[in-house]
Amino acid sequence: MELHQRFGSLLRLAPNLVSFDDPRMIPEVYQKCLDKTTFYTPAVMGETPSMFWTLNHKDHALKKRLFAPSVSHNFKHMSRFPGSSDFVD
Questions:
Q1: Cross-strand partners of 19
Q2: For the CA atoms of the chain, what is the radius of gyration?
Q3: How many angstroms separate the CA atoms of 69 and 86, rounded?
Q4: In which element (H, E) is residue 28 found?
Q5: Helix, strand or coil for residue 6?
Q6: Which residues contact residue 19 at a Cβ distance below 8 angstroms, ignoring those fewer than 6 apart?
Q7: Selection from 53, 79, 78 nearest residue 64 by Cα
């Protein structure tokens, strides 16, 4: 807290470490709509990257939306498969 009082609300403590004392800064610090860097490129195998290795945010969001119902905690969709809820932990 002493560092924040001395230097301000947002501090860069290391190349990959920031500290902030104002919760209103959360959207600014942790932006959701950013593309991934090319650091993730080596893991791409084949022509179409999987959801996890997609660099472009919009492409990733589309794949995530398509995949999300299969891993959702909302099991309403399981009612289409009678008896399948017995196998869901």
A1: 11
A2: 20
A3: 18
A4: helix 26-29
A5: helix
A6: 3, 4, 10, 11, 13
A7: 53
Q: pLDDT by residue (tens digit) across 46-86?
A: 777 777 788 888 988 898 888 887 777 665 555 555 665 56
How many residues are recorded in the chain? 89
Tokens representing residue 18 in the block: 């920031």
Per-residue tokens: 30: 């942790």
44 within 8 A of 54, measured Cβ to Cβ: no
Structure tokens at 83: 């008896």
Q: What pTM was computed for the model?
A: 0.47
Cα(84)–Cα(68) distance, integer angstroms: 18
